[in-house]
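Journal club prep, shared notes

We agreed each person brings one worked example of a sequence with its structure written out as tokens. Mine is Shikimate kinase. I'm keeping it raw so we can talk through how to read the token line rather than staring at a rendered picture. Sequence first:
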Amino acid sequence: MGFHLQKTLVLVGLMGAGKTAIGTILAQELGVPFVDSDDEIVKAANMSIAEIFERDGEAFFREKETLVIERLLTGRPMVLSTGGGAFMQARNQQMIAERGVAVWLNADLEILWERVKGKTTRPLLMGKDAKQVLAGLYETRNPEYAKALVHVESQRNQSKGVMVERVIKALLENDASGVTKDK
Ligand SMILES: Nc1ncnc2c1ncn2[C@@H]1O[C@H](COP(=O)(O)OP(=O)(O)OP(=O)(O)O)[C@@H](O)[C@H]1O
Ligand SMILES: O=C(O)C1=C[C@@H](O)[C@@H](O)[C@H](O)C1
Ligand SMILES: [Mg+2]
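Then the structure, token by token:
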């Protein structure tokens, strides 16, 4: 069964929400390319995100992130997974709303923590109080993510495949998503 996308689907949400993991499968199911803005920055800089934060600082990373998202939104429709902080910037939100469709992958704090704890790839969660930091981001960022057009919440013990099916269902149910199923 084929699908048609009018605009790029931009996955937003906190670290561990599944933007990369779900986005990869979603793109395969929809038959469009998948790009992850974090990966694009890493490739261009030839450094890990942790190294970029360490050497050049978060503000530098955010500038690159905006440029990558801007570039990718001008191409043909795809699934674009963003870094967890990308949707916090008004400029990025505006660009995404104008040229793409924002999809918020949400999950409760405990699920997110289970997925990200012990990993060393996310510089914002590298301190001893990582769970408190994540809880703080959960409080401050959720009102911003909630501005996305489409919302899908992860359920505990649900496979990635089922989550992808739920995302597709939510997109098809929302005419403004620009996603349709071929007849
Ligand atoms: N629905 C799901 N069911 C089971 N595991 C999941 C699900 N979604 C994500 N995961 C797992 O959780 C981990 C974190 O997910 P992922 O890296 O996709 O998050 P992210 O939203 O891209 O985070 P970041 O903002 O840091 O890039 C991965 O190991 C992934 O396989
Ligand atoms: O939530 C965030 O601010 C971040 C999430 C990751 O995807 C990376 O973009 C980086 O680690 C920052
Ligand atoms: Mg990711």
